[in-house]
Every structure is written in structure tokens, then in C-alpha cells.
Amino acid sequence: MRSIRFNIWLLCALILASAAGTFLPQVAEDPGRVETFIASHSLLGPALNSLGFFDLFHSRWFLALWALMVLDIAACKLMEFPSRDPEARPEDLEKMVRSRPLTAKFTAQDADKAFSGIRGLLAREGYKVRLLPTGTSPLAAAAEIHSPQAWGSFISHASLVVILAGCLVKWLFGFQEYVAAAEGSSARVTKRPGWELRVDSFKVERYADTGASKSFESKLTLMENNLPLTEKTIRVNSPLSVQGINFYQDSWGATGKWRSARLAWPDREFELTQGLPRTVPGTDTKLTADLFAADFGVTPEGHADNLTTEPTNPALRVKEEHRSGLSRTWWLLQLEPSRAFLEDADGRLQEVPPPPFKLAAVDPVLFSGIQVVYDPGYPLVLAGSLAWLAGMVVNFYLHRRKFLVVVIPETSRPARVLVGGWSSQGAVAFKKDFDQVVSRMREVLS
Amino acid sequence: MMESVLFQIAAALYVAGTALGFVFLYNRDERLSRWMFNLLAAGVVVHLASLGMRMKHFWEIPENRWYLPINSFFGALSAMTLAITATFVVVEGRHRLGIMGAFVLPWACAAAVGAVFRTHSVGSTEIHGLAPALQSYWMNIHPMVIMIAYAIFGNAFGVGLALLIQERQLKSKRPQELCYRLPSIEELDNLNYRLIAAGFPVLTVGIIMGGIWAHEAWGRFWGWDAKETWSLITALVYAVFLHQRLVAGWRGRKAVYTSMLGFACVVFTFIGVNFLSRLHGYLSAP
After folding, report:
1. ipTM for the complex?
2. CATH number of this structure's domain A175-255+368-387
3. Is the peptide bond before A138 cis (omega within 30 degrees of 0)?
4. CA atoms within 13 A on the CB side of A70
5. Which CATH architecture has domain A90-146+399-445?
6. Best interface-test mutation with A: which of B139, B205, B224, B238 has the largest number of A CBs within 10 A?
7. Which pLDDT tens digit goes with each residue over B196-213?
8. pLDDT digits (tens, 9 = 90+) for A349-389
9. Which of B61, B194, B219 sits opposite A373 (nearest CB)?
């Protein structure tokens, strides 16, 4: 588990599984597509279904991969705190310098003077210089800059564990519930007994050019044991928050009910309410409107259908009765007044030329869809995310650099000066800096 | 209209700059490199002017006021062009690596030309009112941060491509002139790593910002939407690259293949996922 190979294979497994989840239909998004897929792939469909591929992101094996990732991080990273380099024995110092990626060596007449000059130079360059305990000989110092970089990788890996812990807390203790209520009505919050959500009013505005939603908002009253607890107008990006439970404006649509409809003739208009027959003034014609389809469509069998709850193609069923006994049932389309359907006794539709009146407007009763969310893990996710950011910045944007300087006095010859350099990254840039620092060391000594 | 004309001029300048980048591959005349950077800089200025006009029109819709006009495919392609070119000018310009223009700039050109074609196919520069969920201050932050990361990865891809070509040149018995023009394998490898090391935190910060925005809008940090998932996949591929490089010590071609796979994920996340995602579908959005 502590091998890098295992780590990479684990990441690859997560990559492949996640990619598969985006190409296969998922139950959480579209259960109908999942059923169709399984039905049309007699072998593959049931096999994938039994392995949880259609609810992949919540399947046990996918969650197990993430759990394994946490274990892997814990085993690889969190068991070992970043520590200072181990103290080397004086006799090993020369070998240590040679093991650094960049090395330089030169001589100096006076070992003490050279050593103090080099230490002073490194300190002026911003390095934190530390004397290494070597006794009297050789003289050795380690210099380091941007040392917090050593913690970057540790912090970012630890923060991943915190983020995943936040997800686990939500999964164990949190909940999410979709509540829909029509204007003026209320709905229970089943996950929180005693709470009821009343939609006092709902308002939607649409862009004139595209018909897309411009804004939608619900005036909510939250009731606890039939008593008002709080109220707020919520909209997307502006939820209601009560006792750690948030109410988000999620969706909206038509309920199928309507308040009033306006029919128009070339010379007059006429208003109807649901189910109430009205005689057109000056005629023997009685009109009754009952059904409303927000997104009108016709089934392959020829029946009227409401395709979605979005009022993209509003239509109204109007029964026309004459004193003579003639009776016809129309489906009138608000956005396509040139089209109309006649419905027979079996409910089958036939497209015919429209009647002399058209559907000018309908005032449908809308419902507001609200997500009720309790996520006690979110603070952990947020804290983990901020720690991740800090860890990444420290790890990748700080360049930790180390110098190891060893001055070895010689009895009959000039002292030998050995310099080793190491950088956490940016090897090319560091080589330039290393050469410059070494050349300044030489200048100091000369 | 003027916005569209200005954008087309900017696109033409980018294409001309890229063409000079290709000529510079085989011609040592340093003036070509200077002119390439001059054309790109001029392109960026004209592009910014076009963006200014676009913002003026975009802000005429009250709901759009103070938000960046990137809620359409044209807007996204335009921002991507600007991000890749600006990153190239900053990074390669700073390192005097004009030679990399032929490897990096085609991506900016592809985005610019794609945006021009998009304008012609839909008949406008797609200025629409923002959907309610997009009317948030995050609209100016989250997509831009992600695009900056994508632009950095685009530059890294170009550098990786140059490394593969250089390696092939060095192994061949008769290296061409190009071999002496391109930086050393070590320099290219180091630049590729540094670009990815710079882009990876930016990408992950962008993803986290998206999560915080989603939590504010819908009450969930993560929803496994196709775009979210592919952003995560991209980050994981680059995480594999960084682990291979920093822990396993991979260098050169092997590491470059992983970084290129990462960029393939970037392209798929930016373009391909539009056909899979409900929340982030530029192509389906009005």
C-alpha cells in the first residue's frame, strides 16, 4: 500500500470509474434512460446493473476506492511528519555534500575566516543558517530558505482526508430532501418531524427573447407544529437557513391547475375559471374549460399529454356546447393559435382548423421545488478545501533550497571548501542561482 | 456587430502570429519572433476592445450587470483564446522562448477560429440573459480561474510536444536544424513540470470554488455532474503526473505522455462534456 505504484493504480482506477459514470446513464439523473439502456442491452445492461454501474458514484465499490485512497494517503504521508535532515557524523559530511545534486569545491587560506564569510553571505541572501555540531573540525553549516515548503505536501494530503471526512459526515448524519408545494399550499419536511413549509407566493420572470427563466423566487413560511417559525423570500443563490438546515430554491413548474383563462375573438375577450361553464354573451354557446397542459403534446396513441411541468407549450381543454345539442371538445394552444385539436369521446385527438376563438392567456397555479439540506460535513469540506489550497500554494509556489557548506582545514595546505545545493523544484533556475552564490563565495574569499 | 468585427480582427492577428511562429521554427531571424509577440500583443489589445464592447451590450440586460459575458459557447471560446495567448506571452515571452509559438499558439488559434465559426453558425455573438443560478459573484471568479488553469495546461501541452520532437531529433542519426533551435530536453521537461505545477493548484482551487458556488445555489458541494466529474478526472490525471515526477522520478517522454493525457481531458472537459452535462452545457444553453 505504501508504494507509489499502488498509489498511481488507485488514481487510475478512480479516473476510469469516474469517466464510466459520465457515459453510462445514472439513476440519480434519469431513471428512464437507465431502464431503456438495460432493456436494449440484454447482456451488458443487467451485468452492469448488478455491479452498480448505473448508480456508480454511490456504489459501494466506488466509495471503497475513495476509502482506500484515504488509507493510502494515511499510510504514505500522514504517518511521517516532515522532519529536519538527520544530523550527520563529521566524517560523513563530505559524502553528504557530494550526494547533493549541485556541488562546488574550492580552497581558502583561512578556514575560520572563510567559514564566517560564507555564513554571512548566505544569511544576506535570505537563507536561515544553522551551524552543524562537528566539534572542532571540520566546520559545517546548513542553510535553508522557504523551509515551510516541506509541509506543503503533508498539508495538502491531510486536507484531502479532511474533505473526504466531511463527505462521510454528510453521508452519516446529513440529509437532503426535495419538497414541492403549490402557491398558497404547504408540504411537510419529512426528515424533520413537525416542520412544514408553506409557499405563500411564487414569482417567476422570463426573458422575452429566449423564454428562459430570468428569476424565480418563493416567499416561504416555515411552520413548526403549525406555528410560524420564520419566513423569507428565497431565490437561487439566496437560501433560507434555520438551525443549520438550508432551504434552496431548486425548481418550479405548473401544477396542472389554473386560476383563470382568457379566450379571444376578433372583437372581444372572455374570461373562464376552471370547471365553471359560461355562456358567451349574445350567443347560445356555452364554454367550459377544465384541463390545462403546461407542455402540451400528443401521445403515439393520439391522446393529449403533458410532457413536462414547464409551461413551454401551454394548452387548455375547452368544451363548446350549443343549445342545438352540438358539442365539441377543443384543445387550444396559446403559443400556436393557428393550430387546434378536437378530442373525441375516447379522448383521441385530431388536428383541425381552429375555432373562431383562441386562447389568449392562462394563469396557471405554479409549484415551487425546494431542496431541504442538512449538511453537517460542509464546514469540514470547506476547512479541508482551504487547507488544500494552502498546502498546494506552499508546496508548488515556494521553492525550498538548501546549501550545505563544509570547510575542512588542512595543516600544510589551504583549507578545502565544499558546497552542496538542493532545491525542491526549479532545478534549472536553481542551478543559475547556485552558480551565482558560489561565485560570490569565491569573491568573498578572495 | 462592431464587437464581432473586432473579434475577427483579433483572431486574424492571432492566426498571423501563429503563422510567424511556424516560420520562426525554420528561420533563425529573431525579428520573426519579435513580430510574432507584437502581433499577439496587438491581438490581445483588439480582443480586449472587442470584449469591452461585448460587456457593454451584455450589461444592457439588467440581470447581467457586472458579470462577465462567458455564459455562451462563443464567450467561453473567446475567453479561452485570450487566456492561452496571454499565458503564452507572459511565460514564453519571459523566458524568450518564441520558438514555442508553433507548439502552443495553434490551440489559441483553434479557439479563436472556433469562436468565429460559432458566430457565423448562430448568426450572433450570443448575448443572452444569465440563468438565475449564474447571477452570482462566483460567475466572475470560478470560470475564469478554471480557464486560466486550462490555458496553463495548453501551454504545457505545447512544451510537451516540443520535448517529444526534440527527443526524436536527438535520437535520429541526422538531426534537423530544429534540433538546435529547440531548448534542451532538460529545459523543456523542467518548463513542462513547472507549468503543470503552477496550473494544478489553480485548477483545484477553481474546482473548489465551483463546489462552494454549488453549495450556495443548490445546497450540495459536489453532484457528480459530467463537467464536475471530468474536472476531477483532469485533476486526477495531473495528480498522477505530479506523483510520477516528484515521487517516482519520471522524466522526459514518459511524464510528457501523462501530461498530454491530462490536456486531452482538459479539451474533453471544455468541449465534449457540453454534450453530457445538464448544468454546464454551453452548447445547449440559450
Report:
1. 0.88
2. 2.60.98
3. yes
4. 15
5. 2-Layer Sandwich (3.30)
6. B224
7. 999 999 999 999 999 999
8. 999 999 999 999 999 999 999 999 999 999 999 999 999 99
9. B219
